[in-house]
Amino acid sequence: AGYAINESRQVCRFTKDDDTGEWLTVPICDTFIYPVARIQDTLGMMSTKWIAEYQFKGSTATRPVIVPGQALGERGAALHGLLAKHEVMVKGNDRKHLEDYMAAFMTKMRAEREAVKQYRTFGWQSGDKGVEGFLIGPTLYTTNGDKQVVLSGANTGLFADAFVLNPAASKETWVDCIDRMYNHPGHEQFQFIMYAGFGSALVHFFGEPTGAPISLYGGRGQGKTTACKMALSIFGKPNRLMVSWKTGATLNAVLKSCAIMGSVPFLIDEFSNAFGNELSDALYAMGNGRDKMR
After folding, report:
1. Are 123 and 204 in contact (CB under 8 A)?
2. What residues have CB less than 8 Å from 92, skipping those under 6 apart?
3. Which residue among 98, 160, 161, 195 has the highest number of C-beta atoms inside a 10 angstrom radius?
């Protein structure tokens, strides 16, 4: 007749005792799982974010579980296979009860809560009505001046911490530091890099998916990497918005990182360790917005 959570924080089903006629609660799952958000991605596909609770050494641990709407609708192996990956498991006879519990919870949420947007890349975001706003970390700065908190997806979640800033100083202090570093005759090359950092937000409006790779060449100790980090600091933590080919980064990892950044600049340092064909493929992909056809 329904579902409840017992004192041990287990999902239970109600059942009627044949002898006494009393309603009893019978656990159907050792893990307490409950929904916290409805999610809509950029393609309009719906998912639900659930939180699974576990008891570990006398304390409660939690982990998020993203359940696509298709899996919840299909039920059966599609749903329970996904849940099992997060150690949410039930006995065979109780699978249908857990499915009904989750479906009922989702139906209730659908009537009470709006879906939260989830984006695949940072930077400019477009919807049915055109440009929606600019995404930096978990915050979407909309075109009408509002701020919206969104959920990180599988891709953007890899760099979510790059934008969670607790500045040690003010914006005015940052501007003063940049001014003292680069506002001098003979520093035009560094000024150009700062302009490129701000200008990265304009690439979206070139009219087609593309990129604008910029190569800095020169001897060691001339300030190339430092200038790039200063430009990256416009948006977030410089060391999280870059990768060094010298540390063994692969071509696929580099291209994936650039794609996730969208309209946010990304630094690829120490290209001297790259093979010629890797460098050629990387520049082609970044400049054309897609990899070469194989």
Report:
1. yes
2. none
3. 98
Q: Which residues pair with 64 in a beta bridge?
A: 51
| DSSP 3-state percent helix, strand, coil across the chain (nearest 5) | 40, 25, 35
For the chain, the C-alpha Rg in angstroms (whole number) is: 25
Residue 157: Cβ-neighbour burial (10 angstroms; 0-12, 13-18, 19+):
middle
Start-to-end CA span in the chain (Å): 57
Buried-state track 29-67, b at ≥16 Cβ within 10 A, e below 16: bebbbebebbbbbeeeebbbbbebbeeeeeeeeeeebbb
In tens digits, the chain (294 residues) has pLDDT values of: 477 777 777 777 787 877 887 887 778 887 888 888 888 887 778 888 889 888 777 788 888 888 988 898 888 888 988 988 888 888 777 888 888 888 888 888 888 888 888 888 899 988 777 788 999 888 889 888 888 878 777 778 888 788 866 777 888 999 999 999 999 999 999 999 999 999 999 888 877 667 788 888 887 888 899 999 999 999 999 999 998 877 767 778 888 888 888 889 999 887 766 667 777 777 777 776 665 544
